[in-house]
Amino acid sequence: MTVSVRTLTDAQERHAAIPALSDLRIRVFRNWPYLYDGTADYEGEYLAEFIREPGSVLVVAQDGDTIVGAATASPMAGQKPEFQEPLRRHGLDVARIFYFGESVLLPAYQGQGIGHRFFDAREAAARAAGATSTAFCAVVRPDDHLMRPDAPRDLHPFWRARGYAPVPGLTGTLEWLDLGDADESEHLMQFWMRDL
To answer: In degrees rounded to 5, what are phi and psi of residue 56?
Structure first.
């Protein structure tokens, strides 16, 4: 497999990628631990809003012309309140933090260093924007969750190797529709951070 990883900077190219990115997010986030039952309409609106945000970063992995992975980031000051408020309550200056949104990659392409390249590109963008730290949040699921696989993929060692650590007491909640549910529900999200 020959996979290229690049940052999309052209507005038209970013907009043209929305359908493929929507499909990718839905496919990847249906799996553990997110179990997200998303729709193309919602994903399209979310991504269109994201790419309009000043300072937003969109990195894609492509196998030929097919997008097989993507990672996003943007200044925390431009994020929605549900991302900013936990940091503010923790006494952190959101103006100095770059937020890393999703990092999604099809399973067949995992283990090839693409995740590192996603982090490298986003960390470079954060430094260029003058951020002093980066943050992302990950869903926390109970060990006895009925849909937990026997041997789930654990990304904690990868994140720690990149210099990230969970910040004790720094959590928030996000709502989405879980697979098999009729209504959206709140999900506990743990923030991870590192200084640049």
So the answer is: -70, 150
Instruction: List Cβ neighbours of 193 (8 Å cut-off, separation of 6 or more).
Output: 97, 133, 134, 135, 164, 165, 167, 170
Is 22 in contact with 135 (CB distance < 8 Å)? no
d(CA 143, CA 106): 24
Question: Which candidate, 3, 25, 27, places its Cα nearest to that of 111?
Answer: 3
Instruction: Find all residues with CB under 8 Å of 58, minimum gap 6, and list them.
Output: 7, 8, 14, 17, 50, 51, 70, 71, 72
Question: Beta 133-139 vs 97-105: how paired, if at all?
Answer: parallel
Work out the angle between the directed axes of helices 18-29 and 40-52 (0-180°, nearest 10): 120
Cα separation, 8 vs 82, in Å, equals 26
Q: With bands split at pLDDT 50, 70 and 90, how would you rate the model's confidence at 151?
A: confident
pLDDT confidence tier of residue 184, bands split at 50, 70 and 90: very high
